[in-house]
Each structure stands twice: as structure tokens, then as C-alpha cells.
Amino acid sequence: MELDASDLRILRSLQEDGRLTNQALADKVGLSTSPCWRRVRQLEETGIIQDYRACLDRKQIGLGVLAFIRVKIDSHSESEADEFSRKILELEEVVACYSIAGDADFLVQVVARDLDSYSDFAMSVIRRLPGIKEMQTTFVLKELKPFQGFPVGLGG
């Protein structure tokens, strides 16, 4: 789907506030309500807009620790990577996971109540996942720019 300036304004606006009514969104992006509604539906149907959700403050819900774990697996076979991926998807503490290039195979983003909770999780769950060769944790000391949405318009 080719995105025009109106589509980009819609995407930026919905990333800022996904609860905008169609009328408020139309006013904000400079369209009438019907064309705005049709464009949003098309963005949803093509999968550009995948979902709507609330952004939570992790600290206010009791998740004081944010960490990234660099994981190396024993073998680079597709089946071992698939098994690791299946297991990691089941873990509630894992909020994001990426297959990466470089000196590790996966980058896993994890939250925990406190350092003791993280330690228990890392040693009794992550360390025991199939194929783990090595893991290295980096703790976030301060979130300077937490994820707030994608920079709409950079993609072309």
C-alpha cells in the first residue's frame, strides 16, 4: 500500500493517542469523517495498523527491573532456533525478543519486580531453556527514550 501524507498523519496521530474518536482524528488530520474512517479501515485491513492497546508505566505496576539478555545458543540449526523461539514466547516476563546478528543469537527484553525476582527467573527459567550456550544480562538504569511508536515517514 502506498502511503500518502494523510495516511502518515493518521498513523502519527493514532500512535500518539489510539483512543481518538473518528471525528477527533478526522479533525486532527484535516479530513472529513467518512474518508478518515475509510483510510483507517484500509490501514487496518492491510496490516499496517496491527492492534490498539494501552501503554502502561511498568514501574507503577510493580515492574522495577528492565533488562536485556543477550543469548547464544549451542547450534545454529533451524530446529534449535525454532524450539528456543517457541519456549521464549511462553514466558510472561519476556516483553520482546529479537533474533540478531553479531556475537549473540537473540536479544531478549525482560521485566521483573526486583533484582531477586529477575535472578530467580534468569537462573531457573532462562538458563534452563533448550540450547542455551551463554547468556549475558544488561540492566537498564534509566529509560531515556522508551519506545513510543515508530517514526512514520522514514520508511519511504
Descriptive report:
The protein is an alpha+beta fold and 156 residues long. It folds into two domains: 5-45, Arc Repressor Mutant, subunit A; 59-139, Lrp/AsnC effector binding domain/regulation of amino acid metabolism (RAM) domain (Alpha-Beta Plaits), CATH 3.30.70.920. Helices cover 35% and strands 19% of the residues. It contains five helices and four strands. Helix 1 (5-16) crosses helix 2 and helix 2 packs across helix 3 (33-45). The model has no long low-confidence stretch (mean pLDDT 94).
Write out key terms for the chains shown:
transcription, 4 strands, Arc Repressor Mutant, subunit A, Transcriptional regulator, AsnC family, 4-stranded antiparallel beta sheet, single chain, alpha+beta, Tscrpt_reg_AsnC/Lrp_C, WH-like_DNA-bd_sf, transcription regulation, 2 domains, 156 residues, elongated, Alpha-Beta Plaits
List the helices and strands and how they pair.
Elements: H1 5-16, H2 22-29, H3 33-45, E1 65-73, H4 78-89, E2 94-99, E3 106-112, H5 115-124, E4 132-139
Antiparallel strand pairs: 1-3, 1-4, 2-3
GO cellular component, one term: cytosol
GO molecular function: sequence-specific DNA binding
Domain HTH asnC-type: 3-64
